[in-house]
């Protein structure tokens, strides 16, 4: 939770800092025009992509840094990289949870429960294979 809080506090400060530096280099109105054009390009691309939720979030934080990050995230290479990283983290988390559960069972501890307190659905029965010739 803290990284997100830090992100919400630092991102506007970073945006303002970058805007002031760019405005100092090229002038206030050209920098403002770059932000507006970048936002319009982002809105156009997001509408084509059909990401209405991302569009609303994107419109609330226009600026140089978020424009660049948004454009980077639209590239297939960066999306694949992010997806692979998220998949790897999920697999590592699943392995850690499985190792913890196996360790508890080997020590005679309580068996891990299913999420939300539900017991697993187990159907017991017999099976007989019959050929229909």
Q: Let me know the average pLDDT.
A: 75
Distance between the termini: 63 Å
Radius of gyration: 25 Å
The overall strand count is 0
**Into which percent range does the helicity of residues fall?**
over 70%
- Helix count equals 5
**Most strands sheet:** none
Unreliable residue runs: none
What structural class is derived from the secondary structure elements? mainly alpha
> Beta-strand percentage?
under 5%
Q: Please write the string of helix (H) and strand (E) elements.
A: HHHHH
Question: What is the 3D shape?
Answer: elongated
Written account of the structure:
This protein has 133 residues and is mainly alpha-helical. Helix 1 crosses helix 2, helix 2 packs antiparallel against helix 3 and helix 2 runs parallel beside helix 4. It is elongated, with a radius of gyration of 25 Å. The N and C termini lie far apart (63 Å). The mean pLDDT is 75.
Describe this structure in a few short sentences.
With 133 residues, the chain is mainly α. It has helices at 2-26, 28-49, 52-60, 64-74, 76-106.
């Amino acid at each position: 939770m803290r990284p997100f809080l830090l992100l919400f506090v630092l991102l506007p400060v970073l945006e303002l800092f970058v805007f002031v530096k760019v405005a100092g280099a090229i002038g206030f109105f050209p920098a403002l025009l770059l932000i507006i054009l970048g936002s319009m390009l982002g809105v156009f691309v997001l509408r084509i992509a059909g990401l209405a939720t991302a569009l609303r979030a994107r419109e609330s934080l226009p600026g140089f840094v978020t424009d660049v990050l948004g454009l980077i995230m639209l590239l297939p290479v960066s999306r694949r990289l992010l997806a692979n990283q998220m998949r790897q983290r999920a697999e590592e988390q699943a392995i850690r949870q499985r190792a913890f559960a196996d360790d508890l069972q080997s020590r005679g501890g309580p068996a891990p429960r299913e999420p939300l307190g539900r017991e697993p659905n187990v159907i017991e029965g017999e099976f007989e294979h019959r050929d229909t010739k």
